[in-house]
């Protein structure tokens, strides 16, 4: 049981490091080429929009959690009261 928990923890930590170091992965739909071939036509990949890479799910979760935290903890300019000498 402890070995399985340790393995899960190491896998999660490794994925977190991978998302921090290399946030983009090759697009799976176009295999990182940016174009899709259908019959005789060549079109830009709809998933990656021709950029040949996509943002990893773990990095997307990290970015989203950072923005939620920033929105909830930092004071906005409209929330500050003006000093009486101004």
Report strand order across the widest sheet: 1-4
The helical percent reads 40-55%
Which consecutive residue ranges, at least 5 long each, have pLDDT under 50?
A: none
**Beta content:** 15-25%
List the secondary-structure elements in sequence, H or E: HEEEEH
Computed over alpha carbons, the radius of gyration is 21 Å
Number of DSSP E strands:
4
Main beta sheet: 2 strands, antiparallel
Distance between the termini: 64 Å
* DSSP summary: helix tally: 2
Decide which structural class fits the backbone.
Answer: alpha+beta
Which word captures the global form?
Answer: flat
The chain-level mean pLDDT equals: 84
Keywords summarizing the entry:
two-stranded antiparallel ribbon; 86 residues; alpha+beta
Would you give an account of this structure?
This protein is α+β, with helices and mostly antiparallel strands and 86 residues long. It contains 2 helices and 4 strands. It has helices at 2-21, 57-73; strands at 24-26, 35-38, 41-44, 53-55. It has a two-stranded antiparallel ribbon with strand order 1-4. The chain has a two-stranded antiparallel ribbon with strand order 2-3. Strand 2 (35-38) and strand 3 (41-44) form a beta hairpin. The termini are far apart. The mean pLDDT is 84.
Topology overview:
Layout: H1 2-21, E1 24-26, E2 35-38, E3 41-44, E4 53-55, H2 57-73
Antiparallel strand pairs: 1-4, 2-3
Task: Give the structure's gist in a few sentences.
Helix content is about 45%, strand content about 15%. The protein has about 90 residues and is α+β, with helices and mostly antiparallel strands.
